[in-house]
Amino acid sequence: MSQGAALVWCPFPDIEAAQDCAAQLLGERLIACANILPAMQSVYEWEDAIERGEEVGVLFKSTADRLDRLTQRLGELHPYDTPAVLGWRCDSAHPATLGWLSQTLDQGAQ
Q1: Which residues of 37-56 are buried (b: 16+ CB within 10 A; e: fewer)?
Q2: Are 22 and 58 in contact (CB under 8 A)?
Q3: Of 11, 46, 48, 84, which is most buried by a Cβ count within 10 Å?
Q4: Average pLDDT score, the chain
């Protein structure tokens, strides 16, 4: 049982890396959907310097019972040495969304 929905946010260096990772996670049934957001500006501290760069943001949709496996696997697949992978269990979700997530992700688990 899924015990609810979960989301993971993660930036990528480019659209191709985001699409490749999303396809792999879909194939492994760790996500039901990846919303890939076009170019965004990131400002962050790295190695004691303020950096700026263009990245692609991805919001992954999954179930709460897959969250830990998803964040682990995303870290393994990500092209950055230190990817920003942030996941959380959702406090609320529409019943139809929960049904779709569970049905989609549980299809190949049998």
Answers
A1: eeeeeeeeeeeeeeeeeebb
A2: yes
A3: 11
A4: 94
